[in-house]
C-alpha cells in the first residue's frame, strides 16, 4: 500500500476521463453512486491493508460497463478496464489482471466469491446498504428503465427486487466483516419483512420522484 490516499495524478485522470461517463447512466448508477463506492472502498482498503491506487481505480471503473447491457455490465466493465492502456502508467500487467477480475466479481448476484481481496472490497463497497439509499435507488431504477409501468406494477417490481436481493432469503452476500453493512442489512430486512411499512416507503419515494421534488 503506497499510502492512505490515491496518487494525485491517478485521481486527476479518473476525475477527468472516467467519472464523467457516469453522468450518462441511470440515477441508480450515477456519479453520486460511484463517488460513494470509491469512498467506502478506500475506507475498507485502509482497514485490510490493500493497495490504495488499485482499490481506487477498481472502484472508479466498477460500473463503467453500464454503457452496455446491465445484465453483463460487470463483464463489460472488466474488459473496458483491461483495455484502457492509459492505466499502464500506474499499474503492472499483473495488477491490471487482478483489477479486471475485481470489476467482474463485484456484482451482488455473482455465482462465485470474489477471486481476490480487491473483488471483496469493491463488492462490499458497492453494497450501498443504507436503507434510504437502497429504497431510493430501486425506485429510481424502475422509473428510469421501465417507464411504461404504472405505479402498481412499479411496486410489484420493487417488491420482487427487495425479496430476491435483500430479504433473509435474498442472494446478497457480505464479504468484509469489518464493514458496517451487516447492521444496515438487518435494518433493511426489518422493513422488508413488514409489507405495510415497505409499501409506505415505496409510495413516499415514488410520489416524490414523480413530482420532481
Textual characterization of the structure:
With 213 residues, this protein is mainly α. It is built from ten helices and no strands. Helix 4 (73-83) runs antiparallel to helix 5 (93-105), helix 5 (93-105) packs parallel to helix 6 and helix 8 crosses helix 9 (181-193). The protein is globular. The N and C termini lie far apart (43 Å).
Judging from the principal axes of the Cα atoms, what is the shape? Answer: globular
List low-confidence stretches.
none
Radius of gyration: 17 Å
Mean pLDDT comes to: 92
Instruction: Give the number of helices.
Output: 10
Biggest β-sheet, characterized? none
Cα end-to-end separation: 43 Å
- Helix proportion range: 55-70%
- Taken as a percent bin, the fraction of beta residues is under 5%
Query: What's the total number of strands?
Result: 0
Given the helix and strand composition, which structural class is it?
mainly alpha
Written as H for each helix and E for each strand, in order along the chain, the element string is HHHHHHHHHH
Task: Pick out its properties.
mainly alpha, globular, 62% helix, 213 residues, single chain
What's the layout of helices and strands?
Elements lengths: L7 H10 L13 H18 L3 H10 L11 H11 L9 H13 L11 H10 L4 H15 L5 H16 L14 H13 L1 H17 L2
Helix pairs in contact: 2-3, 2-6, 3-5, 3-6, 4-5, 5-6, 7-8, 7-10, 8-9, 8-10
Question: Quick summary of this structure?
Answer:
This protein has helices at 8-17, 31-48, 52-61, 73-83, 93-105, 117-126, 131-145, 151-166, 181-193, 195-211. By secondary structure, the protein is an all-alpha fold.
